[in-house]
Every structure is written in structure tokens, then in C-alpha cells.
Amino acid sequence: MNAKFNELVGGDALVLVDFFAEWCGPCKSMAPILVELHRRMEGRLRIVKIDVDRNPTVAQTYRVQGVPTLALFRNGEILWRQSGVLPAAELQRVLEPFLNR
User: Fold this and answer.
1) Marked catalytic residue, from 14, 16, 27, 91
2) How far apart are CA 27 and CA 59, in angstroms?
3) Which of 19, 26, 55, 84 qualifies as a cystine partner to 69, CB 3.0-4.6 A?
């Protein structure tokens, strides 16, 4: 998965990665927020969900210690990262400056 993950986040497009776990309550509440964010961002941002239990190497590589953790990538680099649940409007506000670069 590491090579495939690197391919997903290695391009010039912005990719928001949601590191989550099936058993995680806050992760479940994050799912509809990401759907709303996808609608608001109108395709300007790719959203990828990574299950940390199924992809432990990727989680370790990026030092994901709590879920949900959101990380914004471009060209394989993390531009922004935060753990916890954020409302869609707040998440959009945080991500907007990266869309204009």
C-alpha cells in the first residue's frame, strides 16, 4: 500500500487524507462532513480515506497516533495536518488558502 499511497499523494493536485478506523466513533461522524466538504469544494480537492488498521505501514510512516487525523498533501508533502473532528465550514476555511497556491 505504501507505493500506491505515495502515488495517490505524490502529484501536483491537493489530496486530503482522512486517516480513520472502523471502530472509531468520531471517525464515523467525520464521514458526512467529508461528503459535505467534497460538495463544497466542487472537485478542487481529492479526498482519500485510509483505514489505519488495514494500512498500518502508512499510518506509521506518517506518525498517525490518533484517529481521525486529516492531512493535506501536495507533491508528496504534508501541507497541513490535524487530529479530531472539524465542521465542514471550518475545514473549508482552513483548506482554502492551499487551493489558491
Assistant:
1) 27
2) 15
3) 19
pLDDT mean over 53-64? 96
Where in the chain are the domains?
Answer: 2-93
The rounded radius of gyration (Å) of the Cα atoms in the chain is 13
Say if residue 100's pLDDT is above 90: no
- Residue 60 annotated to the active site: no
> pLDDT at residue 59 above 90?
yes
* Length of the chain measured in residues: 101
Q: Which of 10, 24, 36, 38 is catalytic?
A: 24
Q: Is the dihedral of CA 76, 78, 82, 86 positive or negative?
A: negative
Q: Which three cell numbers stand for residue 57?
A: 505501514
What pTM does this model have?
0.94
Looking at the domain 2-93, which fold is it? Glutaredoxin (3.40.30)
The Cα–Cα gap between 81 and 70 comes to 6
Phi, psi of 82 (to 5 degrees): -160, 145
